Amino acid sequence: MEQLPGRPGNLTPEQEEKLRKFWEMFLQVCGVLGDDAAGNDTENASETASRTGTKESEKPKKSRMSLFKKKKDKDKGSSTPTKIAAMESLKENDPEDKWGENKAYLETLATHPPEQIRATIWSMVKHDHPDALLLRFLRARKWDLQRALVMLMSTMNWRCSDAHVDDIIMAKGEEFAAVNEKSGDAKSKKLAEDFLAQLRMGKSYCYGADKAGRPICVVRARLHKAGEQSEEGLELFTVYLIETTRFMLSHPVDTACVLFDLTGFSYANMDYTPVKFMIKCFEANYPESLGVVLVHKAPWVFQGIWKIIKGWLDPVVASKVHFTNNLTDLEEFIDSKRIPSDLEGTSGYTYRYKEPVPGENAKMQDTETKAKLLQERELLYEEYESKTLEWINEPDAGQRAVLYAERDAVAKNLREQYWRLDPYLRSRSYYDRVGIIKTDGSVNYYPSEATPAPTNGTAAAVAAGETAANDVD
Length: 473
Description:
Layout: H1 13-29, H2 101-111, H3 114-125, H4 130-140, H5 145-163, H6 165-183, H7 186-201, E1 204-209, E2 215-220, H8 231-246, E3 256-261, H9 272-285, E4 290-296, H10 302-312, H11 315-318, E5 321-324, H12 327-330, H13 367-393, H14 397-425, H15 430-433, H16 457-465
Parallel strand pairs: 2-3, 3-4, 4-5
Antiparallel strand pairs: 1-2
């Protein structure tokens, strides 16, 4: 399968130049570059020119590297985010700013030290290529550097301050909810019950891949009743499923297929609040994550609802929506043998939730190994940043290609290292238990029914809980 345009390894010279400039802006904001780098070298998206066509005498001199010296360790924790000249014209209350990203950007600079910005955005990378993450934001904002940086910082603020994606949602996960469901305080118990109820009924679940290799997330609208779960519980479940689905993306596929099954849908199932939240997630916080949206068997009552929803959608997102009415329509996107039984497919698959297993998250208690792995990862971050600085400032196209390959090698090490760190950071999910997400990061969309999941604490500890000798180099 070929890499799509605008992705790592498949960039035009102009797009590569945008990426280099975006990295420069990002490294300035998060404090990796000294204040003297923030001057006036940052160009607007419309003014950026590709360097590949410049004459030798016009190429930037190597001495420019002096602008990009890292801040000294003594400065860490005591600095504020560097202001970038190109961002000075940013308006907090821009009427074109659909999701309030400008305000979030300015608030982030005012309330978060640069090292926290850096740490949060690096934590967003996980098993992905660092370039791939930044390119999502560039593509979503049509390669406009200013708007892409605003969006990236707004997402960082949302993950860190609002949703607490990594430190609460993914770290606590299903096992924590199962405990709180039985012994938490009233508020925690309600949230846990709402979260687990949606997992158990399979209101939304992932199964298989479409013909383009994209993981499929099925949303069964008939299982939703307005008011049955709290707004907080619905949002928790939505973010958890989106974030978990990220681990099912296998290179070069970087988007998902979302299938809304409207079989048996009625007005009783319509709830605009979670729909708005889902739209915001994909448009503002998970850019370029939707490959295709299938709306299956929409009844006539949905026509009016769709007119309202379509008005909320970005035109690019709306263009990805396709309506399917029967199995033949679905087969344009998904092989029949891969379509679940309740959608009239022949896969024989029916979603059945597997409960958390005692001991499956034992590694998360091993703080010593976790600390060693995080330290190891920090060194890889610094190595990638160092290579990126060289790549940004190298005027020779041939040498830039060499540096790009060296960055790719570090990105590969980051991916491999992430999967050794993952069980110390992320609570196991249903998709880990049934064997879809493998411990090495590989994905099996159709795990054998004969493969048993761990069913007791001892088995779970062997499968996921004990620190392996090769976890720490």
